[in-house]
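Progress against Task 2.4 (sequence-to-structure conversion) is shown through the following example record, which the project officer requested during the mid-term review.
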Amino acid sequence: MDAIRRLGVGLAALGRPAYINVGSAGELPPGRSVEAMRKATWSVLDAAYAAGVRWVDTARSYGRAEEFLGGWLEARAPEGVRVSSKWGYAYVGEWKTDAKVHEVKEHSLGRFQTQYEETRRLLGGHLAVYQVHSLTEESPLFQDVPLQEALAQLAGEGVRVGFSTSGPRQADTIRRAMGLEAAGQRLFSTVQSTWNILETSAEDALREAHENGLHVLLKEVLANGRLAVQPPVEVQDVASKHHAGPDAVALATALSKPWAGTVLIGAVSPTQLQANLAATEVLLDEGELEELAGLNVPAERYWAERSALSWV
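Structure tokens generated for the chain above:
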């Protein structure tokens, strides 16, 4: 498949005024008003679509991202765009960059029913995949049969059911979730997980998911911006050899994984987007891939460092 068609745009940092994205503050509009962020979202979506990107990923907890995306879809009427969204977190930041709490998690039947109605109202028939947001082994979903049955019913509306993962035990969650069945069918057909040069702990489980027919989406491939603005020297060296940015190298490494169906990028401006899209022109050789594979850190360390990042 053409590399550009394996890329998707994630709206986590565009639908709300604050997120844990290192290096994005200077690319966001001054003041970050609702209208300014809507305009920024549309600019990125326009540029991505023009470049050939056809997947957009959002969530109920991404502030007004679904609203921004829904407006763009209605105004532009683009062909061939697939939209994935997520339920389970509610945005409570009240459009404040310094909110004490930005989102609250709840995996319940009531939360699903409420948020699915909200998502459908904003995205309509464009919704292709609806994901449980940040599923973990401790989630009550694993014991909530009515919730599982309600999710399974989405297939009748043409919506695939998926889940996303976070944290140092992503692999365990992926394997457990793959075994869930509802109404005699496997419940999940997509999985979205954090994978990047520094955090590769879910790789074997994601490969297994792919081999079992699930569509794999990779998120946080730039480690929340750290690989773009604070890359290890090895990443910078490879980038220099390819006359590309470290962000392009990080994304190209993800694209080198045949089990990765969609690689999400979180650009907040057309300038960032173009830098990210250069990944499609970076062909890494086996030696470079082996060198980059040696940069991973223990999952517990990675997630502790991620937890220390500030919402800005």
